[in-house]
Amino acid sequence: MPIFLKIAKKALLWSLFMVFGASLAGAQTAGVGAWPTQKPIRLIAVFPPGGSVDQVARTLAPALQVELKQNVIVENIGGASGVIGTAALTRSDPDGYTFAVVFDTHGVNPSLKDKLPLRHD
Q1: Which domain covers residue 47, as residue numbers?
Q2: Residue (of 75, 77, 71, 60) closest to 21 by Cα position
Q3: CB atoms closer than 10 angstroms to residue 108
Q4: Overall pTM > 0.90
């Protein structure tokens, strides 16, 4: 693997860890309580298996398992440019155990689709 790809992969993983860590810190300071418990963490990849979103989620899951000492389950819920998987995230319990790995279409979808099952405020 070329050195550029190794550096890019490492930078991507660190940035994902930073975003994930910041969201965990926000959840704990919001009075959610002790986290994590023994409940597995659900990581929704909003595109089908084999794509870049799936690869990022499956690369991230083992590292999170080691760091958090917690099971992390990757679930692919693809379709409608990521809308179906994102909608599944919005329907999940707001307990801090469900996260989504999204792609740039997540930011573009509101301008392309009239009716989305989620709010973009």
Answers
A1: 34-112
A2: 60
A3: 12
A4: no
